Amino acid sequence: MFEWHGWANIRTTPAVAEFQDLATDATVIAVTQLVDEIEGVFDETVDLRWANGELHLWLAGCHNRPPLELLSFYEAVAETAPGSYGVLYALDHDTEDTWSRYVMARGKVVREEDTSLSPHVGRVEDAF
């Protein structure tokens, strides 16, 4: 089983911006297109919505194998809106006992090993 949970705050640029310029129309359209393209690929949570004047992306799911498009989608969002920031947590229950944390900042996504939930067996759940 492959499990993931993530979020991102969508922003056009990492520069300090006026409230109304956090996500420009062009950025909103581009990220919305990315979401529209990925929604049919995996049928879990992919939610893009406005909250308190800011655009937010939420991702979550659990499949029997890793969706190949998941990380490339998250990276595409970072490249499209380089001011965006967030984290995506993923665990492949079949091959790993360690959660991966993918940190989005300044147009890039960097993988880190998470120590808060890892090792999964022992910290989160008992051994089988």
Report the principal-axis shape.
Answer: globular
Query: Unreliable segments (pLDDT under 50, ≥5 consecutive)?
Result: none
Count, helices: 3
Strand order of the largest sheet: 2-3-1-4-5-6
Main sheet properties: 6 strands, antiparallel
In whole angstroms, the N-to-C terminal distance is: 14 Å
Secondary-structure element sequence? EHEEHEEEH
Beta-strand proportion: 35-45%
Fraction of helical residues: 10-25%
Kindly summarize this structure in a few lines.
The protein has 128 residues and is of the alpha+beta class. It contains three helices and six strands. The chain has helices at 25-39, 69-80, 120-123, and strands spanning 2-10, 45-51, 54-63, 85-92, 100-105, 108-113.
Give the helix/strand layout.
Blueprint: E1 2-10, H1 25-39, E2 45-51, E3 54-63, H2 69-80, E4 85-92, E5 100-105, E6 108-113, H3 120-123
Antiparallel strand pairs: 1-3, 1-4, 2-3, 4-5, 5-6
Helix pairs in contact: 1-2
Structure report:
The chain is an alpha+beta fold. About 25% of the residues lie in helices and about 35% in strands. It is built from 3 helices and 6 strands, in the order βαββαβββα. The chain has helices spanning about 25-40, 70-80, 120-125, and strands spanning about 1-10, 45-50, 55-65, 85-90, 100-105, 110-115. Strands 2-3-1-4-5-6 form a 6-stranded antiparallel beta sheet, with helices on one face. A hairpin with a 2-residue loop joins strand 5 and strand 6 (about 110-115). The two termini are about 15 Å apart. The model has no long low-confidence stretch (mean pLDDT about 85).
